[in-house]
Amino acid sequence: MTEIGKNVVVDAEIVPVTSPGAIESLTRAEVDIQIATARRYPRSVTKFRQEAVSLACLDVEVAGSTFYKLRRKNADGSTKLIEGPSVRMAEIVGMAWGNLRVQSRIVEIGDKEVVAQGVAMDLERNIAYSAEVRRRITGKDGRRYSDDMIILTCNAACAIAERNATLKVIPRSLVNQVLAEARKAAAGGAATLAERRKKLLAYWAGEGVSEAQIFSYLDVAGIEEITLGHLEDLLGLRGAIADGLTTIAEVFGDAREAAVKRGRKPRTLDEVAAEAVDRGQPAPTDSLGGDSDK
């Protein structure tokens, strides 16, 4: 390889080299144009709320994917509730907010974890926030994930980093208003309660989780005690799993072993992760990650 001026000769071909300063200038010019365009077409908070609610409440499935809700036991035996807007909600409010630049990247892949950085910039207000997310790439036995699983974990970390950065830019009071409407749409009305109970139990049965395990998780005696609030808990748990904050095995313990005893082959973590990526969702891992309520 031979340098000629600002070009490089590689295998007898002259390849132009762009200096770091030129790349920085191009990036700055691109952002400046976006800021100027954003200020020409300022957002409307009223329009944002209308569009965000319409998208979040498009149907029951979409509404149910906009939040996560997960119960965790503390060291003293008490139960802690972790909940908040999901990656899907961040995508919805980010699109409706407009004049927003969001990106993420992997900044480190270590022996035991990966680190992702998400950045969100409000072009109209000229304010930006960044967020870092660490995700483990080792199993409970200490063994490092396969290359494919590391890639999926990196994708999940980037998605959560983008979510956290986006939800720092958009006022949380506005996001909470959209989230409240989505939760109402996800839970449905009292007239459909019996049908919704059966549908959710059928979903969890398909994931290898028995009704008894669901009742134990909700702390109810049977299906008739499942309320609209419990339905929201189960929908939120689905959201937590979809966002990669936990796994079915982590929440329900031997659910997969129970599925095998009933003659059903449960899906592996790799299969669940692949399906999540196909649906455009971040791949779940076997650890709690991300920013639980930010």
Can you offer a commentary on this structure?
- Helix 2 runs parallel beside helix 6, helix 4 packs across helix 5 and helix 7 runs parallel beside helix 9.
- It is flat, with a radius of gyration of 23 Å.
- It has one domain.
- The chain is α+β, with helices and mostly antiparallel strands.
- The protein is built from twelve helices and eight strands.
- The strands form three sheets. A three-stranded antiparallel sheet has the order 1-2-3, with no helix packed on it. Strands 6-7-8 form a three-stranded antiparallel sheet.
How many domain units? 1
Query: Tally the helices: what do you get?
Result: 12
Strand content: 15-25%
Strand order across the largest sheet: 1-2-3
Portion of residues within helices = 40-55%
Structural class: alpha+beta
Largest sheet: 3 strands, antiparallel
Shape: flat
The helix-strand sequence is EEEHHHEEHEEEHHHHHHHH
Global mean pLDDT: 78
Low-confidence stretches: 1-10, 255-269, 277-294
